[in-house]
Amino acid sequence: MTAYIIRRLIMAIFILIIVTLIVFFIMQLLPGDPLVIFLGQQAGTGSISQEQLEQLYIRYGLDKPLIVQYWNWITGVVQGDMGESIYYHEDVGTLLLERFPVTLDLGIKSFILYNILGIVMGMIAALRRGKWIDTFATVVSYIGVSIPVFWLGLILIYLFGLRLEWFPIAGYTLPTEDLWKNLYQSFLPVICLSLMGWAVIARQTRSSVLEVISQDYVRTAWSKGLTERGVILKHVLKNSLIPVITLMGIGLGLMFGGQVFIEQVFAIPGVGRLLVGSVFAQDYQVVQSATLIIATIVILVNLIVDISYGWFDPRIRYG
Amino acid sequence: MTEKKVIETGISEAPPRVGEWQRFQRVFFQRKVVMFGLIILVLLVITAIFAPLLAPYNPTQISMKESLQQPSGTHLLGTDLQGRDTLSRLIYGSRTALAVGFGSVLMAGVVGVVLGLVAGYFGGIINMVIMRIMDALMGFPMILLALVISAVLGSGLLNVIIALSVATLPGYARVMHALTLTVRENDYILAERAMGASNMRMMFQHILPNGLPPMIVLITLQLGALILAEAGLSFLGLGIRPPNAAWGAMVADGRRYLLTYPWLSLAPGIAIGFVVFAFNLVGDGLRDALDPRLRGLL
Prior knowledge:
A: mainly alpha
């Protein structure tokens, strides 16, 4: 097991390094000079002499070779120095720290919600195959992966916010400030964020339960005279959740993607909204750092998933 | 092929040999839901090709006199703020969706398949480098990577296609890679090698064709995801350049009139949902029909 973990860790570090290279490289693709964009935001261009421009080049290390620039950037990021936002005139680290709790709050809520809903629904659908609940689950899984999340947000706003006036249509309060208000305000966004995960998890659970249920050891469990609950919970559920666990990691990526839209639609001040705003404000320092952090989180979570996968299923470890 | 496998595995109750095409016809064409999806897709393609004939108005024609009209006999789905006919824009939007979908699938598919094939075939350090880069690309949520790349490249049809291609590249590479690893162990590959076939010939003539069925399935499912992603990008304002019609941008434009003119946002959203739904149905149908493991079961 230790060897397996170490192997995975080394691979994850390697992948993380490539991720930083990709982010750095994409930012190099920017048409034009980052400094010119920077100055253009700061003040009207033309007021700066060639000499001053060169001094700025040296100050920001832009005269150095790319590899040195990359090294300077990455060592800065590791030490928590991600530069300054040209739009907010604030430290990027501080900006992100303010917004990450919001995104994480919504993310964790919907992660819990869609996994519970998905696993329960997928399992019932498989056990009651061909019954109405199975049909319902299939329909939900198709709708979940087909509906654009931003459109779903608008529909929910229209129905429950504008027409029925049950829920607020925008805004966010931290749970530490007012838990009840937080739950009330995040109800619709969390529902939107969860639908796709719900669909994907339910589908996977259904098919893997169906696979496990026809195994010999399940028949043995039945013939031993175990109760339905015993067979399902002890023998079927445990084994069928193994492939579902991998999906949890992938689901995280999907969810971060969904938050970009949901935060936009519901006017929630999270990382997704910051990212979209920064893209339009050409605030590339923020875009670069936020992208890097999100990718890092996804990779780390997938690492944990991989490791737990090996722990649940010894075949993977030695394979 | 099939007969040989039966002997090897020694399955006594092997299903009677049915032609691949016969099985495909039975599993794929005789399912009502799959046919429903296929009909939607055929209609979509027809709509996109014959958009100029089908659309009652010019989709970019601004007419302030007709600004924000409710659905009526003259404008079946009403008009937007600039007085443009919603139905016509919806019809032309299908062109954007399909162009981005097929464009990205083609670009990412070709590059991804070649990368996966090369990585799997040669193994070693080439495999290591290519596949770890793919893993790293997988680390970015697809829409996020597409968002950042199209922000860097700027708006426009080609740039959206490039952005989405980069974001979906690792999917193809992974599938092809895994497949190459299994296929290259086969005896006929060894035989080819013994006859002195070149690497190129082995990869593209003998291994690549094996990838066709899973690729068709992946591409169909990806088309749905790509159309969804394109809609997302254009919803955020990063898609193709206005005044060209894109469904996602139409949803975004209609947001402000949700209470008074809900159709402005509703109609394009339903279009996106239906098309993605259809691609998913057909993709699943294809998978069931082409999956060799389901041979005999379906």
